[in-house]
Amino acid sequence: MTGGRKDRFYYLAKARNYRSRAAFKLLELQDKFSVISPGNRVLDIGGSPGGWSQVAHEISGETVLCIDLNRVEEDEGIRYLKGDIMSPAFQDKLSMAMREMGVEKFECIISDAMSHTSGNWSRDHASSYLICEKVMEISLPLLAPGGNVVVKQFGGDLTPKFLSHWSGKFRFSRVTSVGATRRGSSEVYVIFKGFF
Ligand code: SAM
Q1: Rounded to whole angstroms, how far apart are CA atoms 29 and 169?
Q2: What is the pTM of this model?
Q3: What mean pLDDT, rounded, does the chain reach?
Q4: Is 112 in the pocket of ligand 1 (CB under 6 A)?
Q5: Where are the domains of the chain?
Q6: CA of 146 to the centre of ligand 1 (A)
Q7: How does residue 46 score in pLDDT terms, banded at 50, 70 and 90?
């Protein structure tokens, strides 16, 4: 199990067999916003080592497609696709994996994707913003009508711009934070529900 410094969520994740403490972030978002429903097909972007995919599988009961640069252990609930979402070749790889799984659209797309942080607040915010824009560009053509998106961002000046860019495509949108986020982090989660 990964998780960096060992806090309460680290030990809770170990006790509940989650691969990362991040699992508790999605559980809290699910509690507040019901982003995943039973039977949903879920795409997990930037999902290694797979804590969010485990939670998504538990709720949906379906096999989750989990994309990451880094390896994700597969099991009956998680299918792994290695890929860089910023690369132009990625879209074709994703389409092929979806065909193999017999999936045309996803009802829910979740992204916890984040490149290595530099410690420079504005650089990290800008790179997070670019990843989030890419996640939305990839996601919208793959999202079923009525579908939901959850995307992690290092919040900052560009967050309102991000929200206003995409919120018109959804019935509901909200920027929120979760208790499992480490103190001092600017991490926020943007929730979009009800894709038009
Ligand atoms: N949600 C995961 C969990 O519950 O275990 C933790 C995700 S971790 C915070 C962020 C992940 O985003 C890393 O594994 C990283 O490799 C991935 N990532 C960052 N940039 C990416 C990119 N361009 N394409 C694919 N994955 C990326």
Answers
A1: 20
A2: 0.96
A3: 95
A4: yes
A5: 21-195
A6: 26
A7: very high
